[in-house]
Write a structure and sequence with these properties.
The complex is a heterodimer. Chain A has two domains: 233 residues, P-loop containing nucleotide triphosphate hydrolases (Rossmann fold, 3-Layer(aba) Sandwich), CATH 3.40.50.300; 157 residues, P-loop containing nucleotide triphosphate hydrolases (Rossmann fold, 3-Layer(aba) Sandwich), CATH 3.40.50. In chain A, strand 18, helix 15 and strand 19 form a beta-alpha-beta unit. Chain A contains 17 helices and 21 strands. Chain A is an alpha/beta fold. The two termini of chain A are 45 Å apart. By secondary structure, chain B is mainly α. Chain B has a two-stranded antiparallel sheet with strand order 1-2. Chain B is globular, with a radius of gyration of 20 Å. Classes of the chains: A alpha/beta, B mainly alpha. Chains A and B meet through helix 2 and helix 3 of A and helix 7 and helix 8 of B. The site of adenosine-5'-triphosphate has 20 residues of chain A, from strand 2, helix 1 and helix 14.
Chain lengths: 509, 307
């Protein structure tokens, strides 16, 4: 547990191959990460990055392949073995126990946790340990009460607390603000420079790789397609290694919104309780016209999630009205079908999928009970579901082992694509989207933004909530700022000023 | 006037009833709390309770010691718990279905082995007369407290402390809240749940032993009136908190004593309605404490009813 005395650990994964049934997710991949270096792992969604690191950490048993730790061959059959060798991982999803406090999470994760915990002593130890960490995390709160950024920091702190000296970070910054990300990676970088830590980081963000990594390895469809010193590579070269000579989707020209466009979505004086039940959100006078994208900016946790839930019918509203195409909208299946309302919520695996049902079934959720003419079907045809899913999977390039894999086995980016395929097919009049590009590789990001723009140009009204300001500036016709449960600022895109928006997001007005 | 305390008899009788009736609820709900905190529901505790009652009675008759009877019940209860945990460790087995099967199995088995013990009488568990300072017989009766009640109270306190301050307690909570996190820590959720279910079974069986060896204090097939099932509801009501379980069990016991107490002070009409008080009370509290907008606060994340 002493950050100063234990040196960094070097790790090599040699000839890693991993098959899931007949599907090869990883094909003879060799990655060498010398002690004290910062290594980046790049690749498109579904390239096998998470699979590779899970094999290294003993979470999966690779079909074949060897591990070398500090120059010696090592047998890693479980995460426990990996931990004993000083290897730790921060997973793409959180592995903290939500109902336990930060302190409890840290202490219980320790191999030698005492049978009876002396909280007085543990708290003192933790305090002096945290003094050496630049992160400030409220350790006495249950983890479920922490913001995503705090959870991520706690995950990293936990690994360091456990004395891990080789750290795998799987997309560590996807839930952090740019400032937080910079700070966190800077600290980690500092530790590698001092020879206290070795890092293998999976990322989709080139600027992070260029700014912090020494070396890079690139995966594509389960194969190693390139590696080198970051100093000798530029973005273009890395992108080419990732996707080959595949073209990147270009954003369509923004068609002017017709002057007489009708408003499709109207939100009037809507009130609802927020997650904690203590505060409420109030949205009034929001209109989205056909053929425009209205972006909603805001720091996460200011009621965007709740607003989306109200629109989706997942959260009861206490007052107010939502109208779609001049009809009162209660978010029933029938209404959303009739009015062509589509949803792409954040965390789609949780909010828009049945995780254990198959990819094909999930894709067919909107249409499975209709026959060819759009009438309610009395007999559900498994073949029709499969055919429909097959065509959408091809069209949206969803990478899946098979149509009948449970959708939860897909990589994060591919779940997103599957949901997009379902929601963007057919006639769309109103599209409500939240953080659509979360965790996607750059090619997928370009493609999804292009599809949203296409839907807009096709006459759909789009409400886009995003924590990524660049995304909002690129796509929106108007930008609204949400702060403390209310829409506090509005600006047309032509007059949008990053600083003014930022100030409103921070609640300075 | 010695002995006639008028309407004061009602709260006293309720207090006495609460202490007497609540004991099995305390043990079953504490047992179920351990099991549910580890992420499993064992609905079979009713069967475990009945079997524990039979086993305790039979062994007490054979050995002449009620305490050996309690011990025997615990062993049997742990056995039922292990069986439940073991079956549930197979993939795609539903803990609720297994629980219902084991409930019927435990009751059937108890009736089968218990036939010869309906007649003989077993030595009772001792009670401590905490009311001796008073000259009022009602007070003495109400405060004649069985040892197991005190053990139950101490156990509730100990469990509440242990869930926060011991490694085992934290491990049970980790496994119950996130199996993924547990595996990432190198824990085996199935093993932890196996032992948690066994511990829950052992405690539930003590509740049964109390029924047959103290109150009502005999063994027959109608001994239990669903205590094992109601205790499962109590756990949810108590939000998986051992101290809450203790309080809920007392409340439930007190409500159960309402009918007899009213009858004893001479209320002759409608008192039988009060026999339903515990059930009505549970329903009311459950409805009042629920909310459509909020998830069940405190529920272990891995429970099949909340997941
Ligand atoms: N348990 C599993 N069973 C079947 N297939 C799996 C399993 N885990 C991963 N896969 C498949 O292996 C491939 C690689 O997945 P992986 O999660 O490693 O991708 P990734 O590179 O981490 O992508 P992302 O950037 O989206 O996180 C995917 O096509 C995925 O569907
Ligand atoms: Mg991944």
């Amino acid at each position: 547990m002493n950050a100063q005395t234990v040196p960094a650990v070097g790790v090599e994964a040699i000839g890693m191959t991993m098959r899931f049934g007949g599907f090869t997710a990883l094909d003879d991949v060799t990655v060498k990460v010398p002690a004290g270096s910062f290594h980046a792992l790049l690749g498109e969604n579904g390239a096998g990055k998470s699979t590779l690191v899970k094999c290294m950490m003993g979470f999966y048993t690779p079909t074949s392949g060897d591990m070398v730790v500090n120059g010696r061959e090592a047998v890693i059959a479980s995460p426990k073995d990996a931990g004993a060798l000083g290897l730790g991982m921060v997973y793409q999803h959180f592995t903290l126990v939500p109902s336990l406090t930060g302190e409890e999470n840290l202490v219980i994760s320790r191999e030698n946790a005492p049978a009876v915990i002396d909280w007085g002593k543990e708290r003192r130890d933790l305090k002096s340990f945290m003094e050496r960490m630049p992160f400030k995390i409220p350790l006495e709160q249950p983890v479920s009460a922490l913001a995503a950024g705090e959870k991520q920091k706690l995950e990293i702190v936990k690994q360091l607390y456990l004395g891990r000296r080789f750290l795998v970070l799987d997309e560590p910054t996807s839930v952090l603000t740019p400032g937080e990300a910079e700070e966190m990676l800077g600290l980690v970088r500092g530790m590698t420079r001092r020879g206290e830590l070795t890092v293998l980081m999976i990322s989709h963000k080139f600027h992070e790789v260029t700014a912090f990594a020494d070396d890079v390895s690139v995966l594509r469809k389960g194969k190693l397609t390139g590696r080198g010193r970051v100093a000798n590579l530029d973005r273009r070269k890395m992108a080419a290694m990732m996707i080959g000579d595949q073209a990147i989707a270009a954003l369509d020209q923004r068609a002017p919104t017709p002057a007489d466009a009708v408003s499709v979505l109207e939100v009037n004086a809507v009130k609802a309780k927020d997650r904690s039940g203590l505060k409420s959100i109030e949205i009034d006078g929001l209109k989205v016209k056909a053929g425009e994208i209205v972006g909603v900016a805001g720091v996460s946790g200011n009621g965007q999630k709740e607003f989306l839930e109200v629109l989706a019918g997942q959260r009861a509203r206490e007052a107010g009205e939502i109208r779609v195409k001049n009809a009162s909208y209660e978010a029933t299946r029938e209404q959303s079908r009739k009015l062509n309302v589509r949803f792409i919520p954040e965390e789609p695996l949780r909010n828009a999928c049945a995780p254990k049902m198959t990819v094909a079934e999930n894709i067919a959720f909107r249409t499975f009970d209709l026959d060819k003419d759009g009438k309610p079907a009395s007999w559900i045809s498994a073949r029709a579901i499969r055919d429909y899913a097959t065509s959408l999977i091809a069209q949206f390039k969803v990478k899946t082992a098979s149509l009948s894999s449970p959708i939860q086995s897909l990589s994060g980016g591919n779940v997103q694509r599957a949901v997009l395929a379902r929601e963007l097919s057919g006639a769309v009049d109103l599209l409500i989207v939240s953080n659509p590009c979360f965790g996607l590789d750059f090619a997928a990001v370009a493609e999804i933004r292009a599809r949203i723009m296409k839907a807009r140009n096709g006459g759909a009204a789009v409400l886009l909530m995003s924590e990524d300001l660049d995304e909002l500036l690129e796509l929106s016709d108007r930008i609204l700022v949400m702060s403390d449960g209310q829409l506090v600022y509005e600006t047309p895109i032509a007059q949008a000023d990053l600083h003014v928006i930022g100030e409103h997001m921070a609640g300075k007005h | 006037m010695e002995g006639d305390i008028g309407l004061w008899g009602v709260p006293l009788a309720i207090l006495g009833g609460a202490i007497r009736v609540s004991t099995p609820f305390i043990f079953v709900s504490l047992g179920e709390t351990i099991t549910e905190r580890s992420g499993r529901i064992n609905l079979g505790l009713e069967g475990t309770l009945v079997f524990g009652a039979m086993a305790a009675y039979a062994i007490a008759v054979e050995t002449g010691s009620p305490w050996i009877g309690v011990l025997a019940a615990m062993v049997a209860g742990a056995g039922f718990g292990l069986l439940h945990g073991w079956i549930c460790s197979f993939p795609k087995v539903n803990d609720i279905a297994v629980g219902i099967a084991l409930m019927l199995f435990g009751m059937g088995l108890a009736f089968f082995f218990g036939k010869p013990y309906i007649q003989p009488s077993a030595p009772n568990l001792p009670a401590i007369p905490l009311g001796d300072w008073s000259s009022l017989p009602q007070v003495r009766a109400a405060l004649n407290v069985n040892v197991l009640f005190l053990v139950g109270a101490a156990l509730a306190l100990a469990l509440w402390w242990a869930f926060k301050n011991t490694k085992i307690g934290l491990i049970v909570r980790v496994v119950g809240d996130s199996a993924d996190a547990a595996r990432a820590m190198g824990l085996s959720p199935n093993t932890v749940r196996l032992f948690a279910t066994a511990a829950g079974g052992a405690l539930a069986a003590i509740g049964g032993a109390y029924l047959s060896l103290y109150y009502p204090g005999s063994w027959n097939e109608r001994l239990s009136s669903g205590q094992g099932l109601m205790a499962v509801a109590l756990v949810i009501f108590a939000r998986w908190n051992p101290l809450g379980c203790f309080a809920a069990a007392l409340l439930f016991g007190g409500a159960g004593a309402l009918g007899p107490a009213l009858q004893s002070v001479g209320v002759t009409q409608g008192y039988y309605l009060f026999y339903a008080a515990p059930y009505v009370l549970t329903l009311i509290v459950m409805i009042a404490a629920s909310s459509p907008g909020r998830a069940l606060a405190g529920a272990p994340g891995e429970l099949s009813i909340t997941r």
